[in-house]
Amino acid sequence: MVQATPLLLVLSLAMVAPSLSAEKCVLTGRWTNDLGSNMTIGALNGKGEFTGSYHTAVTATTNEIQLSPLQGSQHDTNKKRQATFGFTVNWSFSDSITVFTGQCFVDKDGREVLKTMWLLRSHMDNIRNDWKATR
Q: Which portions of this protein are annotated as coiled-coil regions (predicted)?
């Protein structure tokens, strides 16, 4: 699905709008990365769970890119200013799923930044090809 040479790729996503809180990083909102992909994360529920959507700008498939749903959870933000989180994107236009894990930071200029790593799993027709299914 998403092209990458290394097994894990570090992505930096920056908040599109200026932060409302320079002290605490808030995951909810619209984020854009340096490759032009964007995602929207909805409000967290009482358990720290969230849903949203991801629109990637890069793909390894010839299928037309479509907005894809995501769901995840954030560690208790009442105790931490720069929370850890994870989410899964179920790609609407391919037979693959990507899991992301990361942390929400506030940089020295008060800008919110997400630092993430991802792992993509593509469908394989048989176990012999399992070695090339994960990027």
A: none
